[in-house]
Amino acid sequence: MTDNVVPLFKDPSTSTDTVTAASPTATSAAAGAVRPARVWKRTASGVRTAVTSERTRTAARLVARHGMYVIGGTRIAAKRTWDGRTGSRYERMIRAAEAGGNFEEAKEWEDRLQRFRSGRHHRRMDLLRSAPDLAKSVAVGTGLTVGGLLLLGIVLAIANKDISWLFAPIGAVIEAIRMIVVVATVVWGPALTVGPWLALLALWGVGRRQQTAPQWTLPVQQRDDAGAPITPSIVVTALRDLGIAPLRGAIKDMGDAGAAMLGPIRIAGCGVEVDVTLPSGVSTAEVQGRRRKLAENLARHEHEVFITLPAAARTVRLWIADSGALDQPIGPSPLVIDETMTANYKTGRAPWGQDLRGDAAALSLYQRMVLITGLSNQGKTAALRALALWLAKDKTVEFRIADLKGVGDWAMFDGLATTLIQGPTDEHVIEATEMLEGLVTEMERRIQAPPGTVFTPLVGIVDEAQVAFMCPTLGDDKRPYGGSKATSRYFMAVRKIHNQGRAVDVILWEGTQDPTDQNLPKLVREGAHTRISLVLGTESQARMALGDKAIDGGAAPHLLRQGLDKGTVVVASDGIAIPAGQASITVRTHYIDTDQAAEIADRAKALRDGVTTARSIDHGPAVDPLADILSVLGSEPRVLTQEVLKRLAVLNEKAYGGWSFLDLKRVLDGTPAAPYKSDGRMVIGRDRVARVLASRPDEGSASAAE
Fold first, then answer.
1. What is the pTM of this model?
2. Which pLDDT tens digit goes with each residue over 497-508?
């Protein structure tokens, strides 16, 4: 049966379903051709596995580590020998003293160098003169030795009454010399073999003690040192292993192993603080850029190590938290605990939270525009609302609030704020814009008041301000409500308040999400006196939120943990106590939930006589700019544009008091009534305006209703 079995294979030139019979010879040839390829593939796979295996890498690190110990030990021994034979050590100390500006110490080292060179010169001259003296000494010593041995032989010959004892001492000395030579001959061979290895071992020992091997060659040590106390040696080792070559080299060259770089390690809240003076050639930016690696070297998470720049040059200040301390809550707000707490807009400070050192962080709000930003759902509204709740305890402060999220976060201010707008639609943006324009009108009224007039504080708050900046809706005058150009009504109202509002206690606070140039224009964010940021996604956003100075000084809201560091803010303001030399401070704010906020608001309402809260802006009677222009033209055929603006302001100060030629041109542009030149001056023609008004559809016009 087995003799009739024919092997089969698929013929590639035919259909995949066609099977033909193959001869034994062809089958063997095909198998022979495939076998080497499989062998090579298996060999390559085996080599790759062997090369990339953990055991191979461990062996490679072992060889590299001990080889670098020998090389490093040789380098150190050669350097020590060179330092001992030359004046390089003195020259190095002279350069270090001069670099540090200590010229007296430099002069002292220079004197030591001169004494060293003088002593070396005398030793060399003595060595040149020692050859003749050595020859004389050898001759005299040999003669005395032979004479002494002969004298000893004479004594022995007399004592033994045998003349052969005369040369016995000399013979004994010769025999001793022969035995020494025999022993030396026997030992010399092994010594030549073992000697280099002993020298190599000595060099290896020097290199191992000085840790001359690169960090990557060292064995991985599984240490459970999380939360270990921070000591000077731990800090120096962490800095040494940052991967900054000049820093590592400088620490090795220091006689005190780098301890001189460190200031005192001080307990600071739930962690410790230490100032590190960096050696020459190492920049503070290099250390700041390796925050994560430094934290890992200190057995901490990245968010548990903060690097700031104090006033001293070439110095970084490290704040290192106790392991896990930043994950613990900081306790309730004093506003919740103390029901009798009051506020003072001018002299008081809002109890807002704690800094990283555990000290109370209080923020002054007097005449300061506030901007707070961060990613969504990180506690922005709660942090901003906490400031407003404290300030509400000052009954002289008036609030006008627009919440463009509209989910009730500010509902407790109903009865506290004179205006409370809540909602995310374009209509709510329009009302928020008109609320700010009302602040501008009040600001201008106060500015024009007689000198010495005292005004009560007026605080406007817009939460989710990015909704307003991104609103595309156009007004009747064709101006957009949103945007970041001079045509934007919201943008221009914010800019006017930022420019002059603080002088008459008209203040604006804004909260916004995920800042960009589109939803938070540059001029707006730079107009805020107090800039606050929660966690952000990128460094560029952090710079938008806080400014370049704060970020370059160590502020890092983009390194906070989203979802885990809710309520933790980075503040750049002169209204909060910031350590000398720093541009910002990190604060863990107290969380006040909605129910607690309502209770605090009720206590603030009890301090007031009663406030009626408007839910929308009173626009007054509807105006028709075209009809009003026609009415102020009277019977004159044409009137100068400047005169038209004056007459409109007299007709309706609220509607037209702030108009300029651009506003007038915007209403009339595109119609036959557009301003034109007459006798070289811009005028408006009465007949033209009348024709446009007559040809306008009656539906929807203000004049049609009359």
1. 0.56
2. 999 899 899 999
